[in-house]
Amino acid sequence: MSAEPPGLDQLRELPLPVPVSYWPQTWGWAVLGLLLAVAAGWLATRAWRRWHGNRYRREALSELALLEAAAASDPLAARSLPALLKRTALAAQPSGAAAPLAGDAWTAWLARCGPPLPDDGARLLETLAYAPDTSVRALDPTELRRLLAASRHWMERHHVEA
Exposed, middle or buried by CB within 10 Å (0-12, 13-18, 19+), for 146? Predict the structure, then answer.
């Protein structure tokens, strides 16, 4: 009984098991994956539309930041604030409801669409828009800063027409 051990040339590799499929085995997982993909696409589309729809707001806020920096040293730089608010309102409301408004009706409309301006906001906006340079230079800097802060708050939080 002298059996010789098998040589290396007779060794064979063990067979590997069948690879596991990554494809779901039941239709329920496929449906769930499809629903998740649809929901992700809908959310992405909604976020893109919101971001694209708020472009006017981002541009207005960046222009307001430049205006605030300039108005800190020269109050006459704030003269463009009423026009900036009006342009922002017209971009937010494509129906043009804000276009013919002025004075108290304008500030009431601003208060209806977003956070209200300060109590003397109408007077300050009129001063900035129509008063001579000497009147604008005579404005209290804290009132002007308060109006600029309220304008920033309005631009950030106003409601857009559907």
Answer: middle
98, 54 Cβ separation under 8 angstroms: no
Place of tokens 């828009």: 129
Domain ranges of the chain: 55-157
Report the C-alpha gap between 93 and 2 in whole angstroms.
Answer: 100
**C-beta atoms surrounding 139 within 10 Å:** 18
Which of 122, 120, 118 minimizes the C-alpha distance to 106? 122
Alpha helices by DSSP H, listed for 13-80, are 27-53, 55-73
> Which residues in the chain come in under a pLDDT of 50?
none
CB 150 within 8 A of CB 118: yes
124: closest CA among 103, 153, 152? 103
The predicted structure's pLDDT at residue 1: 56
User: Residue 118 phi/psi, 5° resolution?
Assistant: -60, 165
CA 11 to chain centre: 68
The model scores a pTM over 0.85: no
- State the Cα–Cα distance between residues 34 and 2, nearest whole angstrom: 66
| Contact in structure between 84 and 64 (CB atoms under 8 Å) | yes
d(CA 18, CA 129): 79
